[in-house]
Specification:
single chain; alpha/beta; Rossmann fold; Arc Repressor Mutant, subunit A; 2 domains; 4-stranded parallel beta sheet; 8 helices; 55% helix
Length: 179
């Protein structure tokens, strides 16, 4: 090793990600925290390496082309390597970010509704028919149909199921009885 320095087990982290900018960013971040990082562009490249004595942590992108994270984990278990694999937490965080993005998108769409359209939406989410919504709002059934059509158009949906799904993502609660 350069300078005669031996890597301590806790210092070496291996990064496997197909995105070069992610590899560079993580490497810099780990270096600033005092770790040594080796990077690999694929699971196959990582498996083909010579065993790094002391490499005990693997940061893994689970959505890469080729061999996926769980398959790499199985291959490492077969080899009985001691790397601690950190990908489930990253996968969970990615899922949370995706859900948050969907929720924000749904809220953004719903914000485009007029107050009356939003009111109709809440009754639809509650499961009421147009006739029942009209009675609740003291308006004509045809007016409810027009509002409901505009709601579906603004939200970009073609079915009540999709309408309910986007409403749930946005946190819209069903309307209550007015009586």
């Amino acid at each position: 090793m350069p300078g005669g320095r031996v890597r301590a087990a806790a210092e070496l982290v291996c990064i496997v990600d197909d995105d070069e900018s992610v590899r560079r960013g993580l490497r810099r971040l780990l270096k600033s925290a005092g770790y040594t990082a080796d990077t690999f562009s694929s699971a196959e490249e990582y498996l083909a390496r010579e065993i790094f004595p002391g490499a005990n942590c693997l940061l893994l992108d689970v959505r890469m082309p080729g061999l996926k994270g769980p398959a790499l984990q199985e291959a490492l278990e077969e080899r009985r390597t001691c790397e601690q694999i950190v990908f489930r937490a990253l996968q969970r965080a990615e899922e949370q970010l995706r859900r948050r993005g969907e929720r924000q998108e749904a809220r953004g769409r719903i914000e485009k509704l007029t107050p009356r359209e939003f009111e109709v939406l809440r009754f639809v989410v509650r499961g009421l028919l147009n006739k029942q919504i009209a009675a609740e709002l003291n308006t004509a059934e045809k007016t409810v149909k027009v509002h409901r059509g505009r709601v579906m158009q603004k939200l970009g949906v073609t079915s009540v199921a999709d309408l309910v799904r986007i409403s749930q993502r946005a946190g819209v609660s069903p309307a209550r009885n007015r009586a």
